[in-house]
Amino acid sequence: MDNATGNTPENNLVKKILFLKKKREAVILAHVYQPGEIQDIADFTGDSLFLSQQAAKTKAKVIVFCGVQFMAETASILSPEKIVLLPEIKAGCPLADMAPADKVKNKIKELHKAVVVSYVNYQQL
Prior knowledge:
By secondary structure, this protein is an alpha/beta fold. It has a single domain, classed as 3-Layer(aba) Sandwich (Rossmann fold), CATH 3.40.50. 45% of the residues lie in helices and 14% in strands. The protein is built from 6 helices and 4 strands; from the N terminus they run αβαβαβαβαα. It has a 4-stranded parallel sheet with strand order 2-1-3-4. The chain is elongated. The two termini are 35 Å apart.
């Protein structure tokens, strides 16, 4: 570490991320469950739907979604013209993982009169 200039590995990493964000015309989204260091460099912090809606309103060409798979999928649906990146591709949600598409489709066939109900968390912070 160079104390005189403040060049710590952490500061250098943040500078590199911010440089790449500007170069790629990206917006960084951080779900409220992300560590503070990630929230600190994010353009928007909040709950999943709110973040996707905010990203859709930007002129960014790239969305970096620091969250889980379904959140990145939502951002992709709301911004089909943008590239959506999920830094941890295996990031999942136990609740969402309980209802994979094939099981839901099979259950609909089995219980054809059933109605499918879903929800989306929405909390603007």
